[in-house]
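Why this split exists: single-chain examples teach little about how molecules sit against one another. For that reason, every record in the complexes split bundles all components of an assembly together and asks for one structure covering all of them. Below is a record exactly as it appears in the raw files.
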Amino acid sequence: MPESDITTSSGVHSTGQAEDSAATDATAEVTTDASTGKPIGMVADIGRDIGQYIRQQRENAKISLRQLSKLAGVSNPYLSQIERGSRKPSAEILQQIAKGLRISAEALYVQAGILDVPTGGPVADAIRADAELSERQKQVLLDVYESFRRENSAGQPKQEPSTVEEGTDATAAADRDNAQ
Amino acid sequence: MPESDITTSSGVHSTGQAEDSAATDATAEVTTDASTGKPIGMVADIGRDIGQYIRQQRENAKISLRQLSKLAGVSNPYLSQIERGSRKPSAEILQQIAKGLRISAEALYVQAGILDVPTGGPVADAIRADAELSERQKQVLLDVYESFRRENSAGQPKQEPSTVEEGTDATAAADRDNAQ
DNA sequence: GCAAGGTGCTTGCAATAGCTAGCACTGCTG
DNA sequence: CAGCAGTGCTAGCTATTGCAAGCACCTTGC
């Protein structure tokens, strides 16, 4: 598990340095950015999450940081920063790391928040695979389908009435798409 | 189709400014970066590709650039740069644009080269969905499966002998994974 | 004990992403 | 015709990404 400090990293690279006391006192409250609620002095949790995951996958594969950096074509200091959560890699870098780890890029994308956890059984898969629908139509249909599934799993919907409206909105949207 | 010029954009932002003559003479050969072969003065083709695609989706939806920029939460000058291919957006920005366009983020990711075009019928989907396999094991299995499919679709394999080796390498790799 | 080769990390820098301020233009309204 | 609201874009700026150079430490072999 990478250490959660940025220590002497310059202000140039960080949104703001972590409070010293936070670095030394594990029980100290993490200072957060007022606008996002995410930790200051550290890339957001999601960055640390992907870094932990990459380090875990690398250790499972029993290779060193330098070995992975060569396999991935990424510099080893940068890979260290990624694993320790002090840098947030782009999708392209994640793609390279996935190749180096010989896992799918999608697995890293889910951890990084770039992709949602895959959902849906055969219906959703079939909708996505339908070549005759536009991207917009696919999305509308998926929204309608997911809305119905939520209704059904709730039995009697206990959400706001907007849940009901959502369904009608979706079908209204579908009608508007067809009108175009 | 966005214009392919960066005109007076400063050198700070571009790998290199397009030759003036290239800007005015449509038949002029595009100057390329020696190391990558990609156009200079323009982000790589793939950047223009995603930009074109976004503009096409926006025009299909019959909304203006400013309307989409508000829906997406992206500044309108930056969206213009993306559509014209002079900036390469991150996955997070693509996610926001997809939401604004009400299409799936995956559709934009495929265009941007972040995701491959989805492949595989039921076998690949089932492998990906299997919760009992590690990410590494899934990838090895997919590699083996795709290798077999390539062999079968070629009838008599005409590729390098490495294609055969690839299969044996893959199964050997699978054995090593199981040994760990 | 020393050299060599490995490890993970820090620092400073260049290039790029993404934004704000502002521009020029168009069409509409009173 | 002036004012307004819209359009798409340019220029300059700040924050961030990703790297190269180099550090300190560890293990191994001679």
